[in-house]
Specification:
- By secondary structure, this protein is mainly alpha-helical.
- The protein has one domain (2-78).
- The chain is built from 3 helices and 2 strands, in the order H-H-H-E-E.
- The chain has helices spanning 2-24, 29-76, 80-84, and strands at residues 91-96, 99-104.
- It has a two-stranded antiparallel sheet with strand order 1-2.
- 7% of the residues are buried.
Length: 106
């Protein structure tokens, strides 16, 4: 999903460059102004796509953080007997999204 917005933003910036090129070739000041205004609109749309991409990324990070908090909260609620049975001599790695947890197991 993130790459799609990146592609769309690049395409908008390409359109903006084309508008700038066309503006420079215009002899009529009004046509030049119109192409420069269109350039600004394309750049604004590109910034909107880039903002959306960052917002989605931050939302995904927040969701991962919330998942990690729930896992930690669930682990904290384990009975003491289960926690005490873990051995420091044996380690098991578990992955949850981008977060790595190391738990001791027998």
């Amino acid at each position: 999903m993130f790459l799609m917005h990146n592609k769309e933003a690049r395409e908008c910036r390409l359109h903006a460059e084309q508008c700038e090129d066309k503006a420079q070739r215009q002899s009529d000041p009004q046509n030049r102004a119109d192409f420069l205004e269109m350039r600004q609109r394309w750049l604004g749309l590109a910034r909107s796509y880039e903002f959306l991409e960052r917002l989605e990324l931050l939302s995904a990070v927040e969701a991962n953080i919330n998942d990690a908090r729930l896992i930690i909260k669930d682990a904290a609620q384990l009975p003491c007997a289960v926690v005490a049975s873990f051995s420091a001599e044996h380690h098991h790695r578990a992955h949850q999204g981008d977060v790595e947890f190391i738990v001791n197991v027998n």
